[in-house]
Structures are given as structure tokens and as C-alpha cells.
């Protein structure tokens, strides 16, 4: 029986062998919606029902509308912001103080804006 030797590649060689240009573009432009899924999951784990979630193109600014119920949420926007941040931190999504702001609260719906993630690069996908 003959044996075949296994090539031992360095970490850099493995990374270069596995990444294609298409995959690099997907990762850079968030084409697979990884970040949106991660943010939605964190809100769900925190017990907050996401009604809508949007990220600004090329910026790390998110807008979220949450269905929180009529009586369960503090009326003060600063306290509500702090409560959401603490809930998200327990669910694994760390947002710094001052980077999440509750904009409005109406009939059990809370609209908030927050900063999370890195700024997406502006690249020309058509030129590749």
C-alpha cells in the first residue's frame, strides 16, 4: 500500500487558496447579509421584536423599528436607549454609550438609530 504525503500549508497559503475575488467582494459589500442577520439575532435574543432594520449604504449606521408593547418600555428616551444597549450587550452585540439613540416611541413601536460595524469600502464591482 502506498501512502501519499499531505502538504503542510502555512496559514497565509491556506487563506490565499480559499479566497476568490467573488468571495472577497461579497464579504466587502456584505452581499450575504451576514451583519443584518447578526443584528437581527441579537435583538431577538434580547427579547426585542424587530419590525424593520436598515443599514445606511457605506456607513455603519443602522435604523431599527421595534415592537416593544405599550406598557413594557420606559417613556424616557435616554433610559430606553440605555435599556436597549444593556439588553443587546447581554445578547452579544456591544454598542458603546452614546451610539444608540431612541428617536421616537409611539403605540408600542420604538424607532432607534445606532452605530455598529465597520464602514463598508466603496469599490467598483463592475470593474472586477
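^ C-alpha cells above, recovered residues below v
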Amino acid at each position: 500500500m502506498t501512502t501519499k504525503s499531505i502538504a503542510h500549508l502555512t496559514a497565509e497559503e491556506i487563506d490565499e487558496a480559499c479566497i476568490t475575488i467573488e468571495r472577497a467582494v461579497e464579504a466587502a459589500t456584505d452581499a450575504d447579509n451576514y451583519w443584518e442577520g447578526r443584528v437581527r439575532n441579537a435583538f431577538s435574543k434580547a427579547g426585542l421584536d424587530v419590525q424593520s432594520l436598515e443599514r445606511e449604504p457605506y456607513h455603519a449606521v443602522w435604523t431599527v423599528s421595534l415592537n416593544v408593547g405599550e406598557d413594557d418600555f420606559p417613556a424616557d428616551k435616554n433610559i430606553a436607549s440605555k435599556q436597549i444597549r444593556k439588553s443587546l450587550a447581554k445578547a452579544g452585540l456591544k454598542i458603546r454609550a452614546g451610539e444608540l439613540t431612541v428617536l421616537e416611541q409611539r403605540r408600542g413601536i420604538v424607532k432607534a438609530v445606532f452605530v455598529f460595524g465597520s464602514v463598508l469600502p466603496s469599490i467598483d464591482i463592475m470593474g472586477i
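The first helix runs from residue 11 to 18.
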